[in-house]
Write a structure and sequence with these properties.
The chain is built from 3 helices and 25 strands. The protein is mainly beta. The chain has one domain (2-395): Porin. The strands form 3 sheets. The protein has an 18-stranded antiparallel β-barrel. It has a 4-stranded mixed beta sheet with strand order 11-15-14-20, with no helix packed on it.
């Protein structure tokens, strides 16, 4: 709260040019679902989001960043109380939250970021196996949003080498679907019974990780290590988040026709509630004219299965052909496609999006999402959740 108040006060006070910048938007969105779900008969959902972010740089070597979100919705996905949330550890989205609050200090080749921030690892799209400090909001599984974590990140850049170390003292879980809503798949014979949200047991202790990357002549590669907790839960009379270790690597190499990217991570755990497995992605990427094309394969190899029930969208999208394409029609209009198709044909997901801007501030986006497949497949279980969305955003 103190940081947000400082940023707000600075924004209202005249300062030297270029030391204070801000960005924000106000957005309204409507979701329409053609089908009812056994545990959720609502077919039209509305949402509202206002976001403001400010960046203050009083000297060349230091920068402060802060952001707040204000939310509302028509379907009980947002908390029905007023408070300022910082931790992002609740089952519902907070009505008013601190999205980010950090300070960055840069001296020579060393940069240190401390506070609530976004930390991304890896190179591949759609599925990123090594991205361990990146929990997400999965209240809508296919329209999820990245969550920030609170910690310290140090980066040292020495010529073609980059060394990164991260320490997070407090665990931030991904937000999972609410049991009384359609993204939590409930059998029809159970939906008529009273449904109580599964309690979550959040682990104590800190998380840490290191990453080294090298940029060479025409290629780049990296190796990473993570020691912490899975931000996606195992379900065992509640939501638990087992301790895991991740050993990862990623690489990218441009060719004359396209860029080849690959990423893999091995997950091991001492917990009897967690499988041990490998996730990997191989993809090619090409930009030609106004087109950006990405296509590849995401796979999984389980080295030790322990029979646990999990909510794991990253693993659920593996053994699939994945792709993304976007085309810029003109300076104001664009279209995009994204999809994942299981190799056995048991599940498929596709999203088509059209976006148009008007002037410098307004943008409207129409999206259609189709999901199909068998009920025992991660993607196929959401076959009743095909939908369309209409979004209007005013940016400032």
């Amino acid at each position: 709260m103190f940081f947000v108040a400082v940023v707000a006060a600075l924004r209202a006070t005249p300062v030297v040019a270029q030391t204070l910048t801000q960005r924000g938007f106000v957005e309204a969105v409507a979701f329409g679902f053609p089908q009812e779900a056994p545990n959720d008969r609502t077919r039209l959902v509305g949402g509202f989001l206002a976001r403001e972010e400010a960046f203050f740089k009083p000297a060349p070597w230091i920068q402060f960043a802060g952001g707040v979100d204000l939310r509302a919705d028509s379907h009980a996905q947002v908390e029905d109380r007023w408070r300022v949330d910082i931790a992002d550890r609740g089952a519902e989205r907070p009505r008013l939250s601190v999205r980010r609050a950090s300070a960055a200090i840069a001296r020579g080749p060393l940069t240190v970021d401390a506070g609530k921030q976004f930390i991304r690892w890896g190179k591949t799209d759609i599925i990123t196996p090594t991205d361990r400090f990146a929990p997400r909001d999965f209240l809508n599984v296919v329209d999820n949003e990245l969550l920030a974590v609170t910690g310290v990140r140090a980066v040292a850049r020495l010529r073609s080498e980059t060394f990164e170390a991260v320490w997070v003292p407090r665990f931030t879980p991904s937000r999972v679907p609410l049991l009384h809503q359609r993204w939590a798949v409930v059998p029809a014979d159970v939906a008529a019974l009273p449904i109580v949200q599964i309690p979550a047991t959040l682990p104590g202790g800190s998380e840490s990780g290191v990453r080294w990357s090298h940029v060479g002549a025409g290629f780049e590669y990296a190796a990473s290590f993570f020691d912490g907790f899975n931000h996606l839960p195992t379900i065992d009379r509640g939501l638990i988040y087992p301790a895991i270790r991740m050993y990862g690597a990623d690489a990218a190499a441009p060719t004359r026709w396209f860029t080849i990217k690959a990423e893999a991570a091995y997950f091991t755990s001492s917990s009897i509630a967690a499988d041990e497995y490998i996730l990997y992605v191989v993809q090619i990427e090409r930009q030609t004219g106004e087109w950006v094309l990405v296509g590849g394969y995401a796979g999984e190899a389980v080295t030790e299965r322990r029979g646990s029930l999990t909510f794991a969208p990253d693993r659920g999208l593996t053994r699939s052909l994945v792709g993304r394409a976007s085309y810029t029609l003109d300076v104001n209009r664009s279209i995009a496609f994204e999809g994942a198709f299981r190799q056995n044909g048991d599940g498929e997901y596709a999203k088509l999006e059209y976006s148009q801007a008007r002037g410098q501030h307004w943008r409207a986006t129409l999206t259609t999402v189709g999901i199909g497949g068998h009920a025992d497949d991660f993607l196929g279980q959401y076959h009743r959740n095909s939908h369309f969305t209409a979004t209007v955003r005013y940016s400032f």
